[in-house]
Design a protein that fits this description.
Herpes Virus-1, single chain, 212 residues, three-stranded antiparallel β-sheet
Length: 212
Amino acid sequence: MELRSGKIVRTMLELSQASTPCMICLKEFPESPGLHHCSRCVGVMCNNCMKEYASFRVKKALDDGTIPSVPCPGCRLPHWKPQQTFVAAPGTQFTEDLSFRLEIPRRDRYYYVHGIHDDEKFVGFVVLHHWRNYYDREHSFHINDVDKLKPFILPIDALLTRFVCKIITEDDNIDHVAQVLRDAGAMVGQPSESSFYVGNLHRLFLTNTNPF
């Protein structure tokens, strides 16, 4: 997949000092046209790294007698360790199960972020895909029962997206979730009665922040 320039849509967002890490130099940069996004894996490269990488690819193609191309280095990297599926982070007092629904543009389904607790406090969260008889089963979101959720758990990097996402919740914690995301460095829109928009959602797990 070719890398291409792009910037995150900022409609309906109150911008914070959000930033995005370059996959090559690992420095963080404000979201801008100077960042280059892969349209498949949502990897990001800063302008300087992109110039050096593109120059290397062109020289290599000339040496090999092939057509120059600039494939995303992130897509070519194999997973050398198990993907993370649980974020351990302290949260608020546990009184009831809490979750929110996540709508990511250009994906064909909703994801759900669920708080995990120890009967006293929220101690982390997971991302679930409610599919294949999910609602026919009883589920526990206690820390000791996380393994029972495995058929529905997604890797945490499912939250990695360059698109503005919509968070929807029927719980009364919407203002708290929005504030936690702001504190983590995400770009958060003004919450309505049951939803709000957010950009740079990955800040939630990069900073090990619990939204519950």
